[in-house]
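Re: weekly structure request thread

Next one in the queue (152 aa):
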Amino acid sequence: MLLQNRAVIALGLRISTNVLKGPLMDTARPNSDMSEFRKVFSKAKHIAIITGAGVSAESGVPTFRGEHEKWRKWQSQDLASPEAFSRTPSRVWEFYHYRRELALNRKPSAAHLAIAECEARLKKQGRSVVVITQCTDDLHRQAGSKHLLKIH
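Done, posted below.
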């Protein structure tokens, strides 16, 4: 059974997700039928918009594994974990200083602004939107998104 009150927007992907209710768990299957996505989205009362590093790339914030990213030779656990800090605190401090400086000088991208506008418009219709992101650059908030869940 298609759940009519929930929709997920996978930014950067041109798919909708149909959620089927099963006896043990919900399962999702990709569907490239945009008309079906529009139908489900128009009826959804609760919407989650999921973003990753790509949403901030347009703002000039490089992705962690980007082609020109200076930190790509290290694994994330070598730069952003308590263990890494115990082993090489200077490298961890340098990494976070670099990321902080990047974020301070950036403005929200068109995608950040569109997401915030979507959230505001849907709120006026009595619908709820939550933005779930891996981004730590604060650009979603700067764009005007109110309901953010940062998971990293």
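Strands lie at 6-10, 16-21, 26-31, 46-51, 128-133, 148-150. The chain has a mean pLDDT of 80.
Next request, please.
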